[in-house]
Design a protein that fits this description.
Length: about 150
């Protein structure tokens, strides 16, 4: 069963077929003339992108060229945690803590519970995703990344 929801410029992709969901995600990342679109996330270079790439390898789903350049991420992969750290790898803070500190909002759940929530209460899971995406966009704006 596939789900699509587009809201406030965000698109939530949900499909029971993981390979299909990955193909759709990577299709969205492709820009014009073979380039990749800018992706902005929080801790995305350490968690989200490696997770998505490894799952893509498992399902033999092609990963767009240019996301990685050797051992480095493309400049189009903007990780707001890296931006927040300003080169200080000891500087910590979750999306929730930093968002509260900057007065731009707070999380409405935990990513650790997301898989169970997606199976048990799809509407709450989508609301969690929407809130996370909106917080990430607000943080990107506050840090001057958008």
């Amino acid at each position: 069963r596939a789900e699509r929801e587009k809201t406030n410029g965000f698109q939530i992709i949900g499909d029971e077929d993981e390979a299909q969901m990955l193909r759709e995600f990577w299709d969205i990342t492709r820009g014009e003339m073979g380039r990749i679109n800018q992706m902005v996330g929080f801790n995305s270079n350490s968690f989200d992108l490696p997770f998505l790439i490894r799952r893509s390898w498992k399902h033999r789903v092609p990963v767009p060229f240019g996301i990685r350049r050797g051992r480095y991420w493309s400049d189009e992969m903007v990780d707001l945690r890296d931006t927040w750290q300003l080169g200080d790898r000891q500087a910590r803070g979750s999306l929730d803590v930093i968002a509260k500190h900057l007065g731009i909002g707070e999380k409405n759940g935990s990513g650790a519970d997301f898989a169970k929530l997606w199976q048990s209460d799809r509407a709450r899971a989508v609301e969690y995703l929407r809130n996370d995406l909106e917080l990430t966009a607000k943080l990107a704006d506050a840090l001057g990344c958008l």
